[in-house]
Amino acid sequence: MSLTQTLDTRSARPEAAQVASLAVPAHRRRPRAIPAAVLGLGFPTVLVVVWWAAARAGLLPEQILPAPQAILETFLGLVGDGTLATHLKVSTERVLIGFGIGAVGGLAFGAAAGLSPTFRAFFYPPVQAVARVNVLAWMPLLTLFMGIDEPLKYVVIAWSAAIPVILGTARGIEAVSPAFRELGQALQFDTRDTLRLIVLPGAVPSLFAGLREGLANAWQTLVLAELFASFEGLGYLMTWGRQLFQLDLVIVAMIVVAIAGLAMDLLLRAVERRAQPWKKGTADVH
Amino acid sequence: MSIDALSGTARSTARDAAPAAPSRLATALRGTGHALGRSLDWRPWASFGALLLLWFAAHHFGWVERKYLPSPLDVVHRLVVEVTQGTILFDLKETLRRNLAGLVIGVAAGLALGGLLGLSGRLGKIVGPTVLAQRQTALFAWVPLLSMWFGGADPGKIAFIAVAAFQPMVVNTWRGISLVPATYRELSDVLLFSRWTYFRLVAVPSALPMIFTGLHGALIYAWLATVGSELFLNIAPGLGGRLNEGSQLFEIDLLFLAIALFGLVGLAYNTLAERAEALLVRWHAR
User: Per the CB < 8 Å rule, is A242 touching B147?
Assistant: First the structure.
């Protein structure tokens, strides 16, 4: 929207625009109205074609960038023998369990911090201090305590997911307008009704922003944890490809990671829209 | 909207740490007006104190096996030993060197591409979606690919740090420059500014706050990527190397020390970015 404006105002000088409007019938003044999707998809398409042609002409050594066909073949092979599905399933399970733990914990802690100033004063700062250091740096320490198996992955994913959820929830509850709270008092709502009818709807946008960031974090940390130590999953697939010097495998895993991450975000956005039917777009409360 | 959503993670990371400093400042400012006793909220300190006591007690009474939990004094002792006889300062210097090298490359590339995308709406429409889409790949998914391209030594690490810094930089610069208020653009059209003059005198000053948001995100991500690259790629002097060492040799005091240093540098970067942003806002408001 705003990007379009940039183009239009920059490219047309005022006097030029006047001349143009005299010369050209109004409905034909913008001949290049190529849909944004076409423009956006055009670039990667061109890239792939150039890549393909370069590989075909032997300009790209396979150790630097394998040809698109090779990557497609690897992808189809991995799909065909079920390897990809296995790794994807393991990774998805880890993310869902870790994110589930982190989201529930984060919602509970964030709600307590948002509702009770005393709880917040005592417990928020220590959590913040720990959260300040990314979970990556804690990982070598955690490994000593819990080994490198599933529990480690659940803990680090839950940890990284919980932080934005805590912030989003606490912030959302604080941001509920005092006017609404007073209204609730005037209507003599009990605690349950206040929470249900006033606090929750007011906090939902920020809460979902937190959840979505939490999910993005969970996905990032999954890759981190699987690169760090694992024998299954998409991150492991990449490490394996690197060890075998199979770039095609690495690239396929990267693409799958990106698509799966995007799919999860879209899913959560859809949930968000259902949770607040009165809203049109997705919220970005920052 | 979509740019907003995608850069959300970067900004949220920035915000994770953000609230602490202003609130402390606010407390301090309030303190100048009130009696000293009321100025400081004792409650967070009470919980930090309790945690420290708990730590001492757990060590002293052997609640946790000593092997797993050194006393806080051991960590301090380790710091003294490392500084006087060890290599921790050299490690820190090496880590910072890599960090700055990657940061400079990533920020410069992000500024250049973001500026181009922002200036030319057409380019923004064609290349922009691809830039946004590649952000969907979890950051650490770049590690195997980059290490195959650039090797596991310094070039590979610096390349990864640069990618981490590049991403928030390009998106925020792009957004900042493309969101220059329409009136400014019209004014520079009336004044017949050349594209370069427009960029220098109008676009960049108006986009500075967003560019600084990008820089803030770049600092945080590059710092994370620095330690990550040291953990995942070839072992070399650096904080990440010390984390590895502590984990493999079961030296938990060293682990705590390295984590604390990691957190402190992150805190320093964050404070620096916040100060710079605050100065900028003041300068802008004039």
Answer: yes
